[in-house]
Amino acid sequence: MVKRTSRSVAARRAATERAARFLEREQHLVELAAAYLDADARIESIGHKYDDRRAALAAEQRAEETAVRRDAGRAAHQMIDRYAVTKSEAAERLGITIRHLNETLSLVPAEQPAPPPAADGPDLLDAAGQADAADESVGDDDAAQPDL
Is the Cβ–Cβ distance between 104 and 73 less than 8 Å? Predict the structure, then answer.
């Protein structure tokens, strides 16, 4: 039988208590590490959720901007096509570069050229053209006679 002294018993008891504290501390550290890793995984999940939302919002923004850019392109085409404004003049009026104007114009096809809107008074050329057309349609006999 081994004789145990009070000193060795106290040393064993102290070692056991230290080991218990060490195990308790390690258990807490493992729990804290698990809590950290769980929170980190949730943060990543939140990031993915908002990445998806950002992507959807960005797509919606691009669609809205494209629609508005087409409106701008139609307005620029009307300046150039209907009012015979040069590209350089249109760009100057709009405060943009010709390159930017060309990019804007490329978003929509050119309209078929339309006559410029009538001025404030009656259009004498149109009225004269209509009168000539009315004179020509009076009868076949008039078609054979030269205009004087």
Answer: yes
